[in-house]
Amino acid sequence: MSDQIYNITVENQDLIIRFKKDIIELDTLKKFLDYLELESFRKKSSMTIAQAEALAKEIDIDVWSNIKHKFVGE
Hints:
Blueprint: E1 6-11, E2 14-19, H1 26-44, H2 49-67, H3 69-72
Antiparallel strand pairs: 1-2
């Protein structure tokens, strides 16, 4: 690599990004890659806002049923 912080190349259907490992913390990189994965899902999704809200509510109810014993002692 030259003086550039990063280098991007394209091979077939892949993007290859190279940079020195000391420019970013591994945890930060993992969070960024998770974000890219979520954005990829969002981009491909045909879910409406109403469907997303219903799913979020269903998840909230499910999560609460699994953790409420920690808060209310049941």
